[in-house]
Write a structure and sequence with these properties.
The protein is an alpha+beta fold. The protein has two domains: 150 residues, 60s Ribosomal Protein L30, Chain: A, CATH 3.30.1330.90; 287 residues, 2-methylcitrate dehydratase PrpD (Orthogonal Bundle). The chain is built from 20 helices and nine strands. The strands form three sheets. It has a five-stranded mixed beta sheet with strand order 5-2-6-7-8. The chain is globular and about 70 Å long. The N and C termini lie far apart (49 Å).
Length: 471
Amino acid sequence: MFLSIFDIFKIGIGPSSSHTMGPMTAAALFLDDLRGGRDKEPGAGELAALGASLHGSLAFTGKGHATDRAVVLGLMGYLPNTLDPDKAETEEANVRARGTVCPEGLPELAFRPDDDLIFDYDNALPGHANGMKLRAFDLKGNLYLEETYYSIGGGFVMTAAELEARDNGGAEDFHAEKQQAGFPYPFGSAAEMLQMGRKSGKTIAQMKWENERALMPEHDLREGINDIRSAMFNCIDRGLRMDGELPGGLRVKRRAKKIHESLKAEEGRNLAQPHVANDWMSVYAMAVNEENAAGGRVVTSPTNGAAGVVPAVLRYYRDHCIGAHEEGLRRFLLTAAAIGGLIKHNASISGAEVGCQGEVGSAASMAAAGLCAALGGTNEQVENAAEIALEHHLGMTCDPVAGLVQVPCIERNGLGAIKAVSAASLSLRGDGTHFMPLDNCIETMRQTGVDMNERYKETSLGGLAVNLPEC
């Protein structure tokens, strides 16, 4: 299916797109089914209560990722893009105290999170590592309605039936669907993207713009891109202002504010080493991921766990690159979204599916392509930049300590940003000719994810998550 820039970059809340935003969205979709009169189970009486179970990675790292809170808030009718993060804790506490939820358009429904929200560690669901079941019951406790959802990464959600239909469809169906939808440049691979660019004489950003214009007026598209950029920069700015400990029990301290103050103090004093540019990129990324870890408002880029890379490189372009301009910012985001769409369609952006290579690796690839395009790179150089950045994240595991998106995730975003800028710079030194095509690199990531042990795919059962310092 066609992935819009607004599918890849979604404004929401932390700490996880797959474990927070996805389950919240799934719960809200379940409420829509209840409101919409979807056929209830035969013999069921009046709707009275709700229940939920989390499976696979959603169970193993759900508490650290605030998945329980996300489900509670979703069953109240909240959505990630409109929820005020500062009210989340209070709203959840109210539900736990009352034992009911009151979603708009439905009666007051019994829901006691401690009893009715089950972390099922023993029974993974077959479709995806991030599975959940939502249920409704009548006054006698009979099943009223049940649905299985999968949070497939980046805040995307599918029902079991939708996921099965997707997995049973082939590449030909995918291309036919895009053509039927009327997109002028329906590339499903990097090779097609380059071929269409050569034939049309357009850049990747221009082709992406034309595809988006098939969905919406130019004014709405322009304003939507500006909203994404503003949300990214606002998140950086807030992260640079905040200090104190991050929630969750690891007692990890925010560092972005202090590092930023140190960098500002060095400006104009001839004190900085040449590699200080790396520190600027890192502090921008860390600011975002500290906000994400605290449950703040972030933009999936393409996920929450990797939300710092693209904004950090975008900010680096705006504030540090010679000749940066408004059109370059737009070109950056359109190009990055095009690459993110290719990766998601042909492999995965989900840490639970392929490890962190699919999150920070994808984000670095997107950021490298975006920066290369913003700096005037050709389509071939852009594809090369994306490949370089992704290639050097292959095999990266997802092993968050205590299931929290803090260690190693926050620093990892900073290093991802540095790799992205290095990849863009290297590609601009060449003519775009290189040995390993981006498509092959994406397929390698997919295969590596299939082979990767489940302990290293966002379950917190291996890696750094089990090699903790002695207290």
